[in-house]
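Mods, move this if it's the wrong board.
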Amino acid sequence: MEYIFDRITIDDKTLNGKPSIRGKRISVQTILEFLSAGETNEEILKQYPTLEEEDIKASLRFASELMNRNYVIKSVA
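Not the wrong board. Structure tokens:
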């Protein structure tokens, strides 16, 4: 299991390797989808009581770091 920012874990045995929150079965993607749908941090924390405010911040930081990379789109076939 690899830890990123002390809160995001990537483990091929949990959520098929999707980045998750502290090894829980809550994906970073889920947190980001709630935020993009307009949910507040408080609403997310109410739905997932094992989460902490820092988990949401770490999810946003993780997404921001991904956007800090260069990508090349190549055509296949």
